């Protein structure tokens, strides 16, 4: 599955998501946004590469990634200290306390709208812009969807980019709910298979 470094994964993610409506809302400054997005997605890439499902598109070097959260049995809370940076801590450092709290509050609705019960959750799907429009995103998505079907799991995701909705619909996903995250925030489409 995953044969990619954290550095390459975060670079692909940052290049792909720099102009995404959610990232523009998070980090409105055009000049600093690519670096802020890379920092945030680097942290997420570390997490998924250590403990998640990561599919890689290579041509021959990696140009795309799909990062999934798969259901796991409930485990007791670990007593190990929190590793730094945390997502919340990083967002506070990048945005400031007030803005991070505002965005964090608005983002809580995402968990509330997710498919209940065990499911495969597509957190991130990205293809480097140099490889766009060649079918790589669909290939990555289909790998995860096939694995979810094989395990009898519904697949779900959220997208804040309206251009992504038809792409996911073409791969058998449908919109379950649509909602604006905040008065100044992007609209979110919750999508799932089945």
Counting H and I runs of at least 4 residues, what is the number of helices?
A: 7
Share of helix, binned: 40-55%
Tell me how many strands there are.
6
Unreliable residue runs: none
Average pLDDT over all residues: 90
* Class per helix and strand makeup: alpha+beta
Strand content: 15-25%
Radius of gyration: 16 Å
Overall shape: it is globular
User: What is the terminal separation in angstroms?
Assistant: 25 Å
General description of the model:
The protein is 44% helix and 23% strand. With 194 residues, the chain is α+β, with helices and mostly antiparallel strands. Strand 3, helix 6 and strand 4 form a beta-alpha-beta unit. Helix 3 packs antiparallel against helix 4 (87-95).
Summarize the structure.
This protein is α+β, with helices and mostly antiparallel strands and 194 residues long. 44% of the residues lie in helices and 23% in strands.
Please give a handful of descriptors for the protein shown:
194 residues, 23% strand, alpha+beta, 6-stranded mixed beta sheet, single chain
């Amino acid at each position: 599955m995953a044969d990619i470094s954290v550095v390459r994964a975060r670079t692909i993610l940052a290049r792909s998501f720099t102009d995404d409506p959610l990232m523009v809302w998070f980090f409105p400054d055009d000049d600093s946004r690519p670096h802020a997005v890379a920092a945030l997605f680097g942290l997420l890439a570390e997490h998924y590469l250590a403990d998640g499902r990561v599919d890689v598109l290579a041509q021959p070097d990696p140009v795309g990634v799909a990062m999934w959260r798969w259901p796991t049995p409930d485990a007791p809370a670990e007593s190990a200290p929190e590793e730094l940076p945390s997502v919340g801590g990083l967002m506070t450092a990048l945005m400031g306390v007030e803005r991070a709290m505002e965005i964090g509050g608005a983002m809580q609705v995402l968990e509330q709208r997710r498919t209940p019960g065990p499911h495969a959750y597509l957190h991130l799907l990205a293809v480097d812009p140099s490889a766009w429009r060649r079918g790589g995103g669909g290939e990555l998505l289909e790998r995860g969807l096939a694995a979810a079907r094989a395990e009898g799991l519904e697949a779900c995701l959220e997208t804040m980019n309206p251009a992504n909705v038809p792409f996911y619909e073409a791969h058998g996903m449908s919109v379950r709910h649509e909602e604006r995250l905040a008065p100044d925030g992007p609209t979110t489409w919750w999508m799932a298979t089945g």
